Amino acid sequence: MVDAADRHRLTLPGEDTAAREIRPLLALLGLPTFGLAFALSTLTAYGPSILLEKAHDPGVVGAILGGEGAMALALPLVAGALSDRLPPTRFGKRLPFVLVGAPMALAGLVLLPLAVNLLVASIAVGLFFVGYYLYYPPYRALYADLLPRHLYARSQASQGVLRGVGLGTALLAGGFFLELWKPLPFVVAGALLLATTLALAPVTRPQRPVSQDAPVTMSVREVLRSKGMRIFAAANALLELGFAGLRSFIVLYVTKGLGHSTAVASAVIGVVAVSYIAGAPLASALERRFGIIAVMTWSGVLYGVGLTAGALPTSLGPELVLLPFVALAGSVLLTLPQALAFLIAPRGSEGVAAGLVDVSRGVGIVLGPLLVGWSVQFSGGLFSATDGYAAMWPVIGVATLAAVPLLRRLQV
User: Taking the model in full, what pTM does it have?
Assistant: First the structure.
């Protein structure tokens, strides 16, 4: 007779398992990616309107939301390392962090629109980001625990699609929900985060065992002593710097630089979102044929050159011709870093590797908007046709191109 608990366990795929055989597992594992992307997009897109009612100062709102970068620099590496070395529990070694982080993020989402003053609202935002970064690295490390190495890139493509769908759905539905009832988009985001987290119940036990002999600090040092991981972290920080700068200033470029409405800016973002979703499975197909380093290198060249060329047009028409191809190359490039980190990391340190992805991302989140903002402010008359905003393109393009020689030095 089959034990009830056994029905909730999954069999680990082997090295000879075909990609088609793990589709149900990838669908299950990917659900929290959708929930997390929806929650993060809801908070960062619609949270500012709540905060502005309390702060009455956009600078204060920006500083509060900028706390994401600070959290990304501090928490992911610790959470990932601890999840590598956690003694065995009935929930495995990763899910305890998920089960702690999810309620914190959920509480932050629900508390924010109900906050009575700026202090409570700030605490709610901080609570969300603490929960998010406790949850995310150990959750992503589950992929390395459950999958053979040759399927890492395939799994990240699946995640990329769900991340894009979560982001796009949140942006499209959030405004409608906000009009119906101010807390509604945050409540919906919290409910989706809870539901998609509970979907991980069947993967509570099949994680691969890790030696408990080394302390947490040794696991971190092993990763940071690896030349390959240091090079990867630098390359990923540059890639994320470019993406963060683009994300922060693309709306201002369209509205202030080119003089179009916010509706046009939303349409531009929609083109990027569709390209992002399409690029994730393309990244997997290209990786299987040409290898992960070659795909990331060439997509980095195309993406970086395309971004830099964005400084030349002074109207939206040429930008729209260029944008889908550039966004597709960017999607391919940004789908694969986590898989690359797992392939480079010392065995048994996949949680630290997942954390290092977020730490390097945090560096990019902090530096990207700052460098782009300074370039716009101090560009002088070089980009007068766009009121200086076209200065963003060389900054993010050069940062992306600077990552290419670093990627070429990596071996998997």
Answer: 0.79
